[in-house]
Amino acid sequence: MKTQQVQPKTQPEGHAGNKMGIDVKINSISMEGNILATASINLNQCLAIRNIRLMNGEKGMFLSMPSYRTGNGEFRDICFPITAEFRTQMTEALTSAYKEALTIQQGKMAQMAESPVPQIAPAGLSM
Q1: Is residue 94 part of a domain?
Q2: Does residue 12 form part of some domain?
Q3: Tally of CB atoms within 10 A around 89
Q4: At the N or C end, where does the chain have fewer CB atoms within 10 A?
Q5: Nearest C-alpha neighbor of 41 from the set 65, 19, 58, 17
C-alpha cells in the first residue's frame, strides 16, 4: 500500500485560507470530578469529533481527545490536533462553549429555585 506525503501547514486553515471553523456542542456538564464536560466538535462542517472531554487538571482546563484502551492497558488517542496552535484553538472554543452552557444551566437552576413549587393534591382529594 502506497502512502502520500503531504506538506504540513504552519496554521490550521479553512476553505479560503481563514482559520479553521470550529463548532462546539456541549453534550453534558458535570459538577463533580475532573471531567467538566463532554462535547462534540465539528471542523469546517467537514469532520465531526465526538466524546471530547474538557478536563480540570492541576494546571487548569485541558482537552482530552477520544481514546481507546490497548490490549496491554494503555490508552491511545483516536484522533488528535497536530499543531499546538490548533490544540489551543480547539481548547479555547470548547472552554468558551462550556462557560456559556454553564451560565445558561445556572440561570435555569436559579429560576427553578425562585419559582414556587405548585401544590399537587393527593389522589382523590381536591385543594
Answers
A1: yes
A2: no
A3: 17
A4: N
A5: 65
